[in-house]
Amino acid sequence: MKKNILLAVAVLVILAGIGAAAYFLKPQVPSTQNDIIGIGTTASSSNYTVTVENVSDIKALQPDLSREVKYGASVTEDVKKLVGAKIDTIRTKLKEDPLHADNWFMLGVLYHAVNDYKAAEEVWEFLLKVIDPPAVAVVMDNLGKLYKFDLKDFPKSESYFKQSIQANPASITPYVELFELYRYLYKQNTTAAVDIITEAGKKFPDNPDPYTLLGAYYRDKKDYVKARAALEIALDRARAAGNVSLIEAIGNEIADLPR
Predict the structure, then answer these.
(1) Peptide bond into 133 cis (omega under 30)
(2) What percent of the chain has pLDDT over 90?
(3) What is the pLDDT of residue 33?
(4) What separation in angstroms does the CA of 111 have from each of 13, 25, 36, 84?
(5) C-alpha distances in angstroms, 34 versus 57, 72, 115, 176?
(6) Given 3.40.190.80, 1.25.40.10, 3.40.50.150, 3.30.420.10, which CATH number is that of 3-189?
(7) Calpha distance 203→174 (Å, rounded)
(8) I need a labelling partner for 258 at 20 to 30 A (CA). Which of 104, 132, 142, 200 fits?
(9) What's the sign of the alpha-carbon dihedral 197, 143, 188, 217?
(10) What is the C-alpha separation between 207 and 104, in angstroms, rounded?
(11) Which residues contact 225 (CB under 8 A, 6 or more apart)?
């Protein structure tokens, strides 16, 4: 008989710099921060149930909870003390009860916070084996960001974001992440960035964000005709949503485009 593991993870809807008025105040630039989804985020949370055969199966799959934490060179002693204590607490809980996926998820976030990327990778890859869709998409997004920003393995990053799309088609996050990956880091001399964000625009017909990104992309390419066309679509969507701040921001951006 299968046992249930309760996953209570806050699923953050990341717009990755889109949709906010401040986005238009400067040219589009690469993200400099890996916004791993995790603790202390403003989010909507859902309880997901995932299944394994039994506790023994989990223990056979799980990462070593006694491994030494490999702190990054830039991590201060104060941070080591603070985060190290949190890691110890979570590990103790997991040794007592390994069926709480939210604790595993938090452990990966804590490892990442102190730049122990290998440990974070191990935890999130473990969660891939025990969490079902759509909840597993959050783990895939974090692995995609890990390979994108930290481990610099862009094909793996791309793969995880594509898997995330399949796991949770209702999330726009992996589309945006792929757009930024193609825009700045990988397959830059292709149409991949435009293709994926255009696909997002069709998939999420009420969301202005894909077209704010596309408009900014064309603006930075100095293709002002295409930039205007994309931003006008975004403006129509913002008006339909009644998003006053975004309406103003997009309107100002359109007005500033050279004719």
Answers:
(1) no
(2) 73
(3) 52
(4) 22, 34, 11, 9
(5) 32, 15, 11, 13
(6) 1.25.40.10
(7) 12
(8) 200
(9) positive
(10) 32
(11) none
Q: At a CB cut-off of 8 Å and minimum separation 6, what does 242 contact?
A: none
| Structure token pair of residue 240 | 């339909």
Asked if residue 183 lies in contact with residue 217, where contact means CB atoms within 8 angstroms, the answer is yes
- For the record, the structure tokens of 217 come out as 């992309």
Q: What is the average pLDDT across 119-136?
A: 93
Taking the CB of residue 154, how many other CB atoms lie within 10 A of it? 15
Residue keyed to tokens 């994926």: 196
Q: What angle do CA 154, 155, 160 make, to 5 degrees?
A: 95
CB-CB contact of 148 with 154 (8 Å) = yes
- Distance between CA atoms of 239 and 142, rounded to whole angstroms? 32
Give the chain's count of helices (H) and strands (E): 11, 2
- pTM for the predicted model, two decimal places: 0.82
Residue identified by tokens 């709480």 is 100
Q: What is the pLDDT of residues 167-223, one digit of tens each?
A: 999 999 999 999 999 999 999 999 999 999 999 999 999 999 999 999 999 999 999
Please check whether residue 176 is in contact with residue 200, taking contact to mean a CB–CB distance below 8 angstroms.
yes
* Strand spans (E) along 159-222: none
